[in-house]
Design goal:
Largest sheet: 4 strands, antiparallel
Helix content: 40-55%
Strand content: 15-25%
Number of helices: 8
Structural class: alpha+beta
Strand order of the largest sheet: 1-8-3-6
Shape: elongated
Radius of gyration: 19 Å
Distance between the termini: 50 Å
Length: about 230
Amino acid sequence: MNHTGDEAEKTWCISEVDIFRDLNASEMDAIAAAAPMKTYSAGELLYSPAQPSEVLFILKQGRVRIFRVSADGRALTCAIITPGTIFGEMVLLGQRMYDNFAEALDDVTVCVMSRADVHRFLLSDARISARITEILGRRLTDLEQRLSDSVFKSVPQRIATTLVALAAQTRPGVLGARNPQIALTHQQIAALAGTSRETTTKVLRDLAGQHLIRLARGRITVLDPVRLTDHAG
């Protein structure tokens, strides 16, 4: 069965997600019907401790930052979610997320699945549930690394680490560009690195002065990924 027009749009979320890669068309149609699309504007919260979510999100477009806030007000980025993967209230999957925030870094489109449908369509399928476990395992490893970086790395190293990680997520050769481009503001980079915008701007200008990056309004181009990785420690 080939999808065209509106049908293809409805199943886009599902067909592009790795955990659903070997489902047949009818299985994808069933999941797509249970996961309607919703949009959020850049800077908007998808969920927070004050408004916990009992749903699973499948990210279609844009990027989402998952973060926590400490008692003294410091934010720790737990994960950057890119299109084609899942996130949300992982108490559904044995991982409590009530203390987390999810913020749209760009204008975001997600497909939203209820708790009941997660159990019905995902956890009941051994193929999908095993891949979800893999995703959560990788995310936990990434969180442990971020916690380690926040303790042992200097602020310039954390900013460089953030740039390296974001550059690795960009698609090479977009619009003919050879160098990775990061479409985030200094304030957003600061939030990801766990520091102030003023400090971030100073560090970014220093990196630009060393010709490791090029700065433009709302965009950072990585010119020398190897040396930038060295700066990340």
